[in-house]
Structure formats: C-alpha cells, structure tokens
Design a protein that fits this description.
It contains eleven helices and 27 strands. The chain is of the alpha+beta class. The chain has three domains: 58-93 and 115-197 and 205-222, Beta Barrel (OB fold (Dihydrolipoamide Acetyltransferase, E2P)); 237-368, OB fold (Dihydrolipoamide Acetyltransferase, E2P), CATH 2.40.50.140; 394-522, Nucleic acid-binding proteins (OB fold (Dihydrolipoamide Acetyltransferase, E2P)). A hairpin with a 5-residue loop joins strand 16 and strand 17. It is elongated and about 85 Å long. 34% of the residues are buried. The structure holds zinc ion (ZN). Zinc ion binds at residues 415, 417-418, 420, 435, 437-438, 440.
Length: 525
C-alpha cells in the first residue's frame, strides 16, 4: 500500500455508493436508534467497514452478482484471482463542463489535473473460471500502473463494494474476449456449480459472456502476501518469429522487441494520436535457413492503449530502445496495442544485461524483461522490397533514378550551429541570418534540400517514389558534379540515371490499383 490507511478508510466513506445513501435514509426514517447503531446498520447493508460480521466471502462471481443488492451493488465479497492489471484512457472532459456551475467559473476549460487521466482496471477470474473486468479509480499518475501490477497481478484478492455495469458477450467485446481466450484453458481444474461443490471439472469452452464491474481502489484487497495464485496464468513471452509464424489469425501475445523506427500519425504529440512502431528481435535477425520470416514487423499503438511517461519519453527520442509488449493483439497479421495491452521500457544496464527499468521489478513475475544478453546484430537487417509489403514497414531498396518530382524539390537555408531552419534576415546585414532557435548570427547557413525521386528497381511494373534524406541527395549531387564540369548546383536533371542504395526506407503508402505504386521515405537507422 502506498497510501496511508487513514486515507484509505476516508475513501471508503466517500459518497460514491447510492446504496449506502439509501441505506442511511432508510435507517433515519424508520428508527430512533442512536448514531452508533445507524453506522453499524448502514455498514452492514453495503458491506462497508470490513468487519466481516455480516458479510461473507463468496467464491463465485456469478452467485454474488445474481444475489445483487440494492442499486446494482454486489452485496457479497468475492474471492478472485487478478489475472491482469491495466489502465484505460478517460475521455478529456470535466464534469464541470457538462453540469454548468451556478456561479460562472473564470475558465470553462477542464482543470489541467483532469486532462489525460487514466482509469485502473483489473481482469479477474473466480475459481469457477468466470471472468469480470473491473473498472476502478482514476490513477493520480499514469506511471502508478506499475505499482498496482506488482501489488495485485497474479494474486488472490477479495473484491468488495463493486457494482455491476453491464453483462457483455463475446460478440460485442471481441478484444476483451481475445484476452480472456489467452487465459483459457485455466492452468488448474476449476470448481463446478453442480451438486458436488468439492469436485473439480475439466475446463470446457471459454466463457461466452462476462460482467463489467465498477469499484474503487479499496474494492480490491489482496490477501496472502507475495505468493501467486495457482490459477494465475502469466503472460507467455514469445519471440516475434513465433508470433509471425503462428497459424492463429487473432490472438493476444506478449514479447520483448527492439523499436527501430517510430512514426506518429496525425500531427499531434505522442500520446494523443496513433503511433506506429517498427520492431525486430534476435529471432527475426538471425540466419533463417528454414521457413524464412520477415526481418521486421509493424506494430500500431492505438489511442486506447495508455503509455507511461518513460515510454512516451523513449518514443519522442530518436534513440533505438527495447520495450516489452504485454497482451498486444495480432489481428490479421498486424500487431496492435489496445485497451488491455501494457507497454513497458526495458533498459540495458552497464554490463549489457537487459532488465525492466521499473524500480524493484526484478523479483516480480509479471515483468517480461528478464536479464538477458542483447544479441541484436548490427546493422539491423531489413527485408528487400517486395510486392507483398504493407504500409508502415521498413525494407531495403536499391534502384536507379528515373525521374524527379519537381514540385517537391526545393532547398532552404538552415542554421549551421543548431540545424534549425527558423531563421530571420538581419535588417542591418541582409546577407546574414539570425537563428531564432539558438539566438546566434548565421554567416554561412547550411543548405537543406528536399528531393523526391522515382526509382526503377528489380521490382518490375511498380512505381516507386522515394523521399530521400539529405545525405543521399548530397552524395548524388556531388557525384553528378564530379562527372560533369558544372559547379555542384542543385540542377535536378543531373541526377537522372544515378544509382542509389541500398537505402533503408519506410513504406508510407501502397496502392495496388490501377497498378502497383509505393510511396517510400528514406530513413536513418
Ligand atoms: Zn541555430
């Protein structure tokens, strides 16, 4: 626990439960009992207080839910195993903007603390095999998720003061059920609802429905110290090769991979829009004499997947990083991180061993980043361009320039100190610039060039348009200048017929009709 007991009990009495309020009203209306007795009665009605006198612990979620108390409250405590802990984003709005305040506030926008909030969730399973997804309190900080993972995941906990939100079926919540399916069949025999409660039964098909519940932090209480439940099924770490070569069309999978390229879709910051990552691991990079597999794979981090600050920081940095992906989805050959997926950083310690960067996580079973040699070969191997390639992947490409997109070819000055192109002409010395970014005088600005070329490659009947990097453009222009007797200008005609590559390129767009056409972008690895 990282909040003092006093705070916890204060939270327990917070006015969240209508059931409690009704209970109190009932008591006040019908009796003249003293306040001490009122407290006892209202406590008993809603299982508050944890005294255990009038509440009993139930082993079945279904039984507890069927014996529902007032106002949707589940009257009984239920013993469950927390199979997964994750968080979901909460839409950016403040209650104040919906319920207009009587006194006009100075600002109508949501308070900053309310923005980008996330809600803690657990997927629990009872000893009969039934699952429930429980939405708990808002996390003060997204990074607190790790603490709750350590505290709860894999452990037997008691659920109390929960409410039923909805009964959902497999058809309506395919992604939630893909997570449930990954936990099925259970690793130990289940209890049976039949006449012989002491007997266990072999697991049948995975459940076809489950309940969505809501509660608060105090609704989950773990019982028995550090031991993990025998019903807990931790995420199985797979290699990317295992995942790509699996015959399952849709499945949940957990793995550790190196992120070699990141791309933020939409013009927003990371954390706002979708993020595409290009991943690889030693299983994809090693020699593959049998069943050759791709060298890299694309993963989409959906906006419904909450990213912690260390992950966001790594995604905003150009450096290559290693991350663990827990319960991501393979859907039709694409990897996705969605609602119940958890992305964590893995760091390389000075001795070259890998470990989770989460403090104190070494001893914890849920962490996928085990200490291990980093055996990723350098440079990273990429697949050659092929007609089957899909957008957001990387490949290597060699070709001859057959055309230049004149509309996109231009050059502009940039600061020779910091590289910024935010320059202003000095009024007193028009031949010089002032760099707005580093506040220095720029005498000899660098020239930045943008150039998109059409390439012919070994891929016949395919139009390839490639946005080149500055270093490639410069080398082509310099070669052109050496061959001719011209001053190295930026005459695009000089580059025709020049061979380029092998280039590492990111596949931006692929159109197959009326003919195969790809928009590519050279990247630095
Ligand atoms: Zn500058």
């Amino acid at each position: 626990m990282f909040i003092p007991r006093g705070l916890l009990s204060a939270q327990r009495c917070s006015p969240y439960s209508l059931c409690r309020t009704f209970g109190l009203l009932e008591v006040c209306r019908t009796t003249e009992e003293n306040s001490a007795k009122q407290t006892t009665v209202s406590g008993a009605l809603c299982s508050f207080g944890g005294s255990g006198v009038l509440t009993r612990c139930c082993l079945s979620l279904l039984e507890a839910i069927e014996g529902l108390g007032q106002a949707g409250c589940v009257g009984q405590d239920v013993e469950v195993v927390v199979q997964r802990v994750y968080s979901i984003p909460v839409p950016d709005y403040s209650p104040m903007t919906i319920l207009k305040p009587r006194v006009p506030s100075r600002s109508s926008s949501a308070p900053p603390a309310e923005k980008g909030k996330t809600r803690l969730c657990v997927l629990v399973q009872d000893s009969y095999g039934m699952f429930s997804a429980v939405q708990l309190h808002l996390l003060p900080c997204k990074d607190d998720l790790h603490e709750y993972c350590h505290m709860w995941q894999g452990r037997t906990c008691v659920l109390r003061d929960i409410k039923v939100v909805q009964r959902v079926t497999r058809e309506r919540r395919t992604r939630l059920f893909s997570l449930i399916d990954s936990l099925w069949p259970p690793v130990m025999p289940l209890k049976d609802h039949g006449n012989t409660p002491s007997e266990s039964r072999p697991a049948g098909p995975a459940p076809s429905f489950c309940y969505l519940l809501s509660g608060q932090e105090s609704s989950v209480e773990h019982e028995d110290g550090q031991t993990l439940s025998s019903l807990y099924l931790p995420p199985t770490k797979l290699t990317l090769r295992d995942i790509l070569q699996s015959d399952l069309k849709t499945c949940r999978c957990s793995f550790v991979a190196t992120v070699i390229h990141k791309r933020i879709m939409q013009s927003s910051d990371v954390g706002q829009g979708e993020v595409w990552l290009v991943l690889t691991d030693p299983s994809l990079q090693e020699e593959q004499p049998e069943r050759p597999c791709r060298r890299t794979v694309a993963l989409c981090v959906n906006t419904s997947c909450v990213l912690t600050s260390s992950v966001l920081e790594a995604l905003n940095s150009p450096a290559v990083c290693r991350m663990s992906f827990r319960d991501s989805i393979k859907e039709h050959g694409v990897l996705l991180c969605v609602e119940q997926s958890v992305v964590e950083m893995c760091s390389v310690d000075p001795e070259g061993r890998l470990e989770s960067s989460t403090p104190g996580s070494e001893s914890l079973s849920h962490s996928l980043c085990e200490p291990k040699e980093n055996t990723l070969s350098q440079p990273v191997r990429l697949d050659p361009l092929s007609p089957e390639i899909t957008p957001n992947c990387l490949c290597s490409l060699t070709g001859v320039i057959v055309g230049v997109d004149e509309n996109t070819a231009y050059s502009w000055p940039a600061c020779n100190h910091c590289g910024s192109d935010n320059l202003e002409v000095l009024a007193e010395r028009p031949e010089n610039f002032h760099c707005v970014s580093c506040k220095s005088v720029v005498d000899k600005p660098d020239t930045k060039i943008q150039l998109e070329v059409f390439l012919s490659s070994s891929l016949s009947n395919c139009t390839l348009k490639v946005k080149l990097q500055q270093k490639t453009i410069m080398s082509i222009l310099n070669t052109a200048a050496l061959e001719g007797d011209k001053f190295p200008g930026y005459d695009v005609e000089n580059v025709l017929g020049k061979e380029v590559g092998p280039l590492a390129v990111y596949v931006r767009v692929v159109t197959r009709k009326p003919s195969l056409c790809m928009g590519l972008e050279e990247i630095c690895l």
